[in-house]
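wait is this the right file?? whatever heres the structure
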């Protein structure tokens, strides 16, 4: 069993974030030293602290960083999205993102062009109603450091169950994890057609199983990296691993490999 913790590791972030899709000569490792085979804390004591930091996203230029902090207690878990900016090569003191803090929000994700931010939230769809009891996917515009108003992604994607970990590929398609009956959480894909997300479909039977698949990330529309949780205990110990599947020319997902 592996202990499930929420500490940022340089290796994980660089492997799974869109900013690192560029080749090595263009990557400056987010102001950190070039990583080796040993994981290192990212922005130690600035972003990586004693709190539970998780699920993050860099802007395409690598200078804005959004991430989640979980305030865990025995009675409640409340998530908040924080923002840090890189100025003169150093990361600023994190602040609560302008669109977060009132409701439980998590899993921010910059679109590949940096013009949208996707996230999940318990916030009410209508201002006249109370907050939801499940996470829905929301989005907002982002332009030169200015945040738009959060908008609900709509009922084509969102349901009365949790939608988690949104990720968008270069062609605009949305990938996320949701409850799928006896299969637990499965990875789903919603195709973008005429600027509208279609009803989601299962990513692939070769990927989705009776275990829990989550944290999907798409690299150049060809490679899916995701986490597989086989079991969970009340003491937060889980059997979990990161897997990668490359899309074949016929559109089907290829062999599944574990990232070690």
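ok assuming it is, sequence goes like this
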């Amino acid at each position: 069993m592996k202990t499930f913790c929420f500490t940022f590791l340089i290796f994980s972030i660089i492997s799974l974030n869109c900013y690192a899709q560029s080749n090595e000569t263009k990557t400056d490792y987010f102001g950190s030293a070039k990583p080796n085979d040993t994981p290192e804390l990212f922005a130690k004591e600035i972003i990586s602290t004693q709190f539970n930091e998780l699920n993050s996203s860099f802007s395409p230029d690598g200078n804005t960083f959004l991430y989640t902090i979980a305030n865990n207690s025995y009675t409640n878990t409340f998530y908040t999205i924080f923002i840090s900016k890189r100025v003169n090569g150093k990361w600023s003191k994190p602040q609560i993102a302008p669109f977060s803090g009132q409701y439980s929000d998590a899993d921010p994700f910059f679109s590949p062009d940096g013009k949208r931010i996707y996230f999940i939230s318990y916030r009410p769809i209508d201002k006249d109603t109370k907050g939801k009891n499940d996470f829905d996917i929301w989005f907002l515009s982002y332009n030169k450091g200015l945040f738009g108003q959060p908008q609900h992604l709509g009922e084509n994607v969102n349901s009365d169950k949790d939608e988690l970990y949104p990720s968008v590929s270069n062609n605009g398609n949305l990938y996320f994890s949701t409850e799928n009956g006896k299969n637990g959480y499965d990875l789903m894909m919603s195709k973008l057609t005429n600027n509208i997300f279609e009803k989601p479909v299962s990513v692939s039977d070769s990927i989705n199983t009776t275990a829990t698949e989550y944290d999907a990330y798409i690299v150049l529309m060809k490679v899916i990296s995701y986490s597989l949780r086989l079991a969970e205990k009340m003491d937060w110990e889980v059997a979990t691993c990161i897997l990668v599947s490359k899309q074949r020319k016929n559109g089907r997902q290829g062999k599944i490999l574990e990232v070690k």
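Helices lie at 10-16. so i think its the right one actually
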